[in-house]
């Protein structure tokens, strides 16, 4: 890429019957300085643009660089739908199409064809209804890249990583063992340094049980697993708080003490972020060999086809991807998303 070329960012549309295609069109209509390449069906985007009342200029992607992009211009790598979308009604016949777009995007990022990937939401249940075992982008990209990864959702005020992702609640305890927790904490620590610029990241680790187990009276996972891992990693220099009771870890008095939270399971912490910053939270995957960001919301089937879905989270995801691409290129010392937080020493 020449020095003046815009970063080539891959976009996937997710569930064709959800709001993803409309959000891609709205993202393309912004003046963000990126060479967006949508990996999806061309006609799907054309129909989404009509629903949104947005003009787009779709250009077949030739793999080349550009120095400017006018709002509305979007390069496309056409991957055909199996069946035309009916907004609000996911069709499992399109499951293979959705997975093909993810695989193409991941392969393109790994080979350097794209500088980063931004994903719109997909309907996990529709892929499952097609008879395919699938639990989320995070797990798909981890398997596709043979990488250990961690899901993080980040707003300008709060970063939350998850020790487990899309698991039934009754499987969570067994999934958290010393090995997995240590691996997760190392990834979060390293990525807070590499991606967010914290020299000595402070991570608040939540307990699994109410009141972090109340000294063993409300569960033993803290005593048997979490505390020993924290003690071991503290001895190696990591700044780890906890295990903290999840119900009070997010109160203002606590937030100044950490740069990120590690929650034990999906719904332990994501409701905090989604209720206070639904329009500006970004989902990113830590540990992958490429940059992947995403929205913090789902397919919003109730809004699909109306053109009314809010593109703010997708735009924030694209902006974060651009920041991460720039940081990777320059090894910049500027911390990302530290506004409004009491940051530790950021390099
Ligand atoms: N990144 C992803 O692929 C991703 C993320 C979250 C959920 N999902 C999937 O999405 C599906 C539906 O999930 P859900 O119903 O729990 O959550 P949802 O986020 O789709 O919807 C929850 C509520 O938020 C509203 N909403 C969501 N996005 C909005 C937007 N951009 N603008 C305005 N309002 C918006 C919806 O209208 C709805 O009222 C599930 O299959 C879930 O697994 C996918
Ligand atoms: N856990 C995410 C959320 O609640 O926003 C969401 O399900 C998306 O996960 P993937 O990026 O793994 O699809």
TrEMBL record:
A divalent metal cation binds at residues 166, 211, 266. It is found in: Cytoplasm. It holds the Pfam family PdxA. One of its GO terms (molecular function) is 4-hydroxythreonine-4-phosphate dehydrogenase activity. Its EC number is 1.1.1.262. Keywords: Cobalt, Cytoplasm, Magnesium, Metal-binding, NAD, NADP, Oxidoreductase, Pyridoxine biosynthesis, Zinc. Its cofactor is Zn(2+); Mg(2+); Co(2+). The active site is located at the dimer interface. This is 4-hydroxythreonine-4-phosphate dehydrogenase.
């Amino acid at each position: 890429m020449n020095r003046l070329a815009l970063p080539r960012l891959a976009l996937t549309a997710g569930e064709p019957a959800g709001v993803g295609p409309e959000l891609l069109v709205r993202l393309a209509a912004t003046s963000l300085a990126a060479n967006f390449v949508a990996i999806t069906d061309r006609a799907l985007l054309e129909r989404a643009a009509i629903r949104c009342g947005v003009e787009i200029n779709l250009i077949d992607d030739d793999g080349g660089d550009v120095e400017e992009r006018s709002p509305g211009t979007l390069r496309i790598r056409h991957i055909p739908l199996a069946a035309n979308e009916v907004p609000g009604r996911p069709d499992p016949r399109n499951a293979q199409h959705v997975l093909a777009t993810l695989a193409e995007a991941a392969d393109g990022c790994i080979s350097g064809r794209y500088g980063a990937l931004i994903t719109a939401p997909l309907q996990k249940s529709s892929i499952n209804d097609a008879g395919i075992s699938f639990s989320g982008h995070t797990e798909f990209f981890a398997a596709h890249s043979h990488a250990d990864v961690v899901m993080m959702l980040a707003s300008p005020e709060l970063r939350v990583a998850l020790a487990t992702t899309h698991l039934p609640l009754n499987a969570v305890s067994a999934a958290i063992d010393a090995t997995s927790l240590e691996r997760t904490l190392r990834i979060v620590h390293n990525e807070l340094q590499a991606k967010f610029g914290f020299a000595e990241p402070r991570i608040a680790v939540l307990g699994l049980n109410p009141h972090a187990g109340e000294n063993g009276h409300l569960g033993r996972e803290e005593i048997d697993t979490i505390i020993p891992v924290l003690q071991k990693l503290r001895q190696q220099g990591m700044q780890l708080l906890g295990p903290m009771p999840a119900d009070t870890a997010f109160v203002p008095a606590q937030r100044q003490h950490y740069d990120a939270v590690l929650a034990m399971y999906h719904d332990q912490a994501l409701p905090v972020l989604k209720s206070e910053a639904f329009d500006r939270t970004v989902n990113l995957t830590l540990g992958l060999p490429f940059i992947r960001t995403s929205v913090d919301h789902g397919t919003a089937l109730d809004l699909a086809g109306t053109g009314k879905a809010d593109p703010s989270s997708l735009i924030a995801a694209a902006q974060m991807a651009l920041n991460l691409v720039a940081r990777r290129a320059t090894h910049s010392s500027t911390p990302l998303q530290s506004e409004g937080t009491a940051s530790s020493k950021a390099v």
